[in-house]
Amino acid sequence: MSMPDGFHLGGFENASIVVGERTVLRPVAEPDVDLLVRWHADPEVLRFWDDETFTRETMLERLAREQVAPYLVLAADGPIGYLQVWGNGEGGLDMFLEPGARGRGLGPDAGRAMARHLRDDRGWTRVTVDPYAWNDAAVRGWRTAGFVEVSRHEADDEHTAPWVLMEFRDLRGPHRMKP
Ligand SMILES: CC(C)(COP(=O)(O)OP(=O)(O)OC[C@H]1O[C@@H](n2cnc3c(N)ncnc32)[C@H](O)[C@@H]1OP(=O)(O)O)[C@@H](O)C(=O)NCCC(=O)NCCS
Fold it and tell me: Residue 42 is part of a domain; what is its CATH number?
């Protein structure tokens, strides 16, 4: 496979900033590439990403894939994670936050914001996620974001362990009463 000689962003041609309540997602840009390589080298990210590491070149190839729109997740004090959108018209999300940003509800905020954007601004009919069944924090986080469990599956070509298919239903709605 030939290596890209520069930065080319795959996914939506008109990718735009997506605003959540506590996070903002913006399309990845060239200055983010080294940060993404560094994050993916962290064992606390790796183990959720099927142990896949990247060089700058292989990261550029990943970011250039036509079917995948890559976003950086930002909180008030800067970049905290990565979210990618697969598909067109319907499809799925993958996300990780850097370890120091987890456990504060920022991931669900970003996941909900992107799923709503795909549904409401882009007219997508279905948005799914596929966390591993062992990944409690992810299954709970996606539930908080408005995804519901649809089915459970065994390991397959794209999953190294049993996994859960979840679909965005947004049952809590934008004006949910706080408990
Ligand atoms: C999954 C992820 C994006 C969720 O984002 P987040 O901001 O941490 O989400 P939350 O703070 O709402 O935490 C999610 C749930 O996991 C729990 N949790 C958080 N950190 C945890 C940890 N280290 N161990 C166990 N549970 C944990 C939270 O208490 C919460 O559960 P609750 O809703 O019952 O209170 C984030 O934890 C992450 O990046 N994990 C590693 C990568 C990953 O698993 N990606 C998803 C692949 S599908």
Answer: 3.40.630.30
pTM above 0.70, yes or no: yes
> How many domains does the structure of the chain reveal?
1
Residue 54 lies in a domain: yes
Expressed in angstroms and rounded, the spacing between residue 25 Cα and the centre of ligand 1 is 18
pLDDT value, residue 4? 58
Q: Is the CB of 102 under 6 A from ligand 1?
A: yes
Residue 12 lies inside a defined structural domain of this protein: no
104 vs 142: CA distance, rounded Å: 13
CA–CA gap between residue 179 and residue 168 (Å, rounded): 22
Ligand 1 near 50 CB (within 6 A): no
Query: Over the stretch 127-174, which tens digit does the pLDDT of each residue have?
Result: 999 999 999 999 999 999 999 999 999 999 999 999 999 999 986 555
Residues of the domain holding 120:
18-127
In a domain, 166, yes or no: no
4 CB under 6 A from ligand 1? no
| Cβ atoms of residues 83 and 117 within 8 Å | no
- What is the spatial distance between Cα 97 and Cα 46, in angstroms, rounded to a whole number? 12
